Give the backbone structure.
Amino acid sequence: MNKIIIDVRTKEEFDEKHAKDALNISLIDISEGNLGLLKDAPKDTDISVYCRSGARASIAKEILEKEGFTHITNLGGIDSIL
C-alpha cells in the first residue's frame, strides 16, 4: 500500500517549513476538489494529513473520506511531527 503525507497549509506556510517528503495540497484546493496527485490514487492509499494546529487537517480528513479515501490519519500540527 502506498503512503502519502499531505501538508494542507498554504504554499507560503509550506515553503517556510514542512515535513520531509510531504506534498502540499492546501485545504482550499481539497475543498474545491483539486486533489492534485490524489486524484488518481487508489482509495485505500495510506494518507496522513497535517497543518499548523490540526484543525485544517481535520477538515481535510473529512473531505477526503467523503471522496472515498479509507485510510486517512490526522497527524495534527506541524510542530508535533517535526
Summary: The chain has a mean pLDDT of 96. The first helix runs from residue 11 to 16. Strands lie at 3-7, 23-24, 46-51, 71-77.
